[in-house]
Amino acid sequence: MRNLASLALALGVSTAALAQTTAAGQHVTKLAEGVYAIVHDDAVDGNPNGNTTVIIGDRDVLVVDSDFALSMAKADIALIRKWTDKPVRYLLNTHRTNDHNMGNALYKEAFPAMDVIAHRETKRGMYRAPVTPERFEHYVAVREERIRSGKNADGRPLTDEEMAATMKSLEAKKQMLAEFREYHYLAPTITFDEGMDVDLGNRVAQIRFLGPGVTPGDAVVYLPKEKILASGELVTHPAMYTFGGYPSEWVRTLERISRLDIDAIVPAHGDVLRGKSVCMDFLALEREYLQSAVDQVHAQLEKLTAVSELPPLADVRKGVDLSPFRTRFAGADKEQLEFFDGASEALIRVTYDEEMHNAVTPR
């Protein structure tokens, strides 16, 4: 997980608002009475665990997202049992990617009466790429062969540094393989299209689909009384996870989110945003960044189609510059700057794909 203090400095968030950390690598922020945000360390192999929000009512509990690493999901369940003896009645998967739904079956085992909620499109997409033991067996086998042969995938001899990194990665993948041998896929049991309200007992959580962003079925949870939003991957920080999605639609979805009265946002990844102005400023920055990508890619396509009917991505990329946003998102943090650069490269590709799709499929 990204360094908490660095994130706070980058976003202007007071370090006093940072979370308390458990031995398991959970960073817990109590947002209101009975409302907790859990930000997780990455899994041992570097895969990110999504954030989890726990909302406790007088009768039931709603959990938002269930982690990637099964060990972290178990740790979250143990925390919830410390906070309340009420059952987890609902688990919402905000979207289809694995880092937010791998722990579903563990929650069901712990709370048998629980239902899993998701947008209809999320349920359709979740089963397509589940993390299976076979996948991690492949990861292990590839690294073992590289160590045995002393060569990389392209046949080039591994340097001492690369060999050490491969050996470290191998041990991490073996550990994850051991975890995922007990993984069971659990699909959503309740789906919705526009939204639904969940009564937890003197606390109603509003589950809403405000439009696509990263996926066709991104869902958010809003607590109007407490002015808290669990955003799913529509909001991440410091940098956005723009490795897929629908950038032009994402801008409009963020505009709808901005109309809500929000004092705190639990993003899919990264620390909790606190304070109305902090939340609104960051939402505006995300919109500006995405809109810049959309506008620049569109302008390049308009320019290049004068000489080529289907301009290649490589030519479009040359005319798109998202570097003015680097320090606005990542500050001076080297790791975050590198992440931003990779995510921005992906955003240009994703925006190009969306533009080309729209060109042949008018809306």
3D structure, described in words:
- This protein is of the alpha/beta class.
- It has three domains: 4-126 and 184-285, Ribonuclease Z/Hydroxyacylglutathione hydrolase-like (Metallo-beta-lactamase, Chain A); 133-180; 287-360, no CATH class.
- The chain is built from eleven helices and 14 strands.
- It has helices spanning 4-11, 70-83, 104-110, 120-126, 133-149, 160-180, 247-258, 276-304, 313-317, 326-330, 334-360; strands at 20-21, 26-32, 35-40, 52-56, 61-64, 88-92, 115-119, 190-192, 195-199, 204-208, 220-223, 228-232, 264-267, 273-274.
- The strands form two sheets. It has an eight-stranded mixed sheet. A six-stranded mixed sheet has the order 9-10-11-12-13-14, with helices on one face.
- A hairpin with a 4-residue loop joins strand 4 and strand 5 (61-64).
- Helix 5 (133-149) packs antiparallel against helix 6 and helix 7 runs antiparallel to helix 8.
- The longest helix is centred in the C-terminal third of the chain and has 29 residues, at 276-304.
- The radius of gyration is 21 Å and the shape is globular.
- 42% of the residues are buried.
